[in-house]
Each structure stands twice: as C-alpha cells, then as structure tokens.
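In response to reviewer comment 3 from the previous cycle, which asked for concrete evidence that the modeling workflow produces usable outputs, we include below a single protein chain processed end to end. The sequence was submitted unchanged, and the resulting structure tokens are shown without manual editing.
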Amino acid sequence: MLILASASPRRLELLKQAGIAPGKVVPADIDETPLKNEIPADYARRIASAKALKVYEQHKGNIILAADTVVGVGRRILPKTEDENEVRDCLTLMSGRRHKVLSAISVIDAKGKQKTKLVSSVVRFKRLSEPEIAAYIKSGEWKGKAGGYAIQGLAAGLIPFISGSYSNIVGLPLYEALALLKDAGL
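The workflow returned the following structure tokens.
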C-alpha cells in the first residue's frame, strides 16, 4: 500500500491528477526548524527524508512517499508564511527577481530502501506594487505556503516566468515522484 507522508492537500491532489490514490495519508510530525547555515537544497532533502523515515517506522512493509518544498532566495530559506508581516517580507524580497522552488521527494519501498531526489524550478515575480502586495495579502491565499504564495492561485497573475516543473512549484514534482514510485514497485 502507498502511504503519503504529508498533510498537504496539494500533494494529494497532484497524485490524484496522475491517477494515484494513496491507501493512507499519514502526516509526519517532525521538527522542521532549519539548521544553522543550512542551505535550501540540503534542508529540503533532510526534511523529506526524515518525514519518510518517521512514517516508515510506524508502517513498515508499505511504500512511503514524503516530500518537502522550499522557496529559496540565494542561501536563504523563506518561511511557510503564518502572518501578514511574513508574507509582506517574502513578497517584497521576491519582487522583480528570481527565486528557486526546491522540492525533495523521498520514497521508501516495502523492503525499507530509501531514495531521495531533489527538483529545482526557477520562478520570477514581476516588480510588485504596494497595492498588489496588499491585495494578495488580503486574499489569504498565502497562509501556510512556502515563500508566501501559491502559483496555482492568484499569484499566477504576478509571475511572468518559470523554468522547470510547474507541479514542483505547486508542491510535488510529478514526473520525478512517479519515477521513484515505479522504482519502489508501485
């Protein structure tokens, strides 16, 4: 049985879009605090791997899929925004410039063998005016989102350029996830 180790409704939706319905959804409750001087790619790999291992320990013999998506500006990891000040800071920082969206996918097969893959996409926001930032904040769409935005929502109108996997930016790079699941015997 496939177990999705994620509380993200977007990841579940993306899997369903690809024709995959996990037998269970078991969010992994782990500490997601970045380590001192940890760069975005290393953070995403560490967190996805830890989520998969935590759920595998409770559900041995199943295939576990875990992922973590991070928005990085240079070496800086942007937060999953929880308040208006955080989202304003993120949008101001990303305004008119490129940033990376990095997702690590970690799959553990039924025998306990783990594989983790990192996928990187580039996103550029237009130069945002104060009224545009205020309107986006008012939408509430940013709550709990890495970097404070959801490309599949209103933010799509603020993004003139992406390079890489769109599903990665949403929260789960499907092509790579499906390849890992196939390798795991699904």
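Residues 2-183 form a domain with the Maf protein fold (CATH 3.90.950.10). We consider this sufficient to address the reviewer's concern, and the full set will be provided in the supplementary archive.
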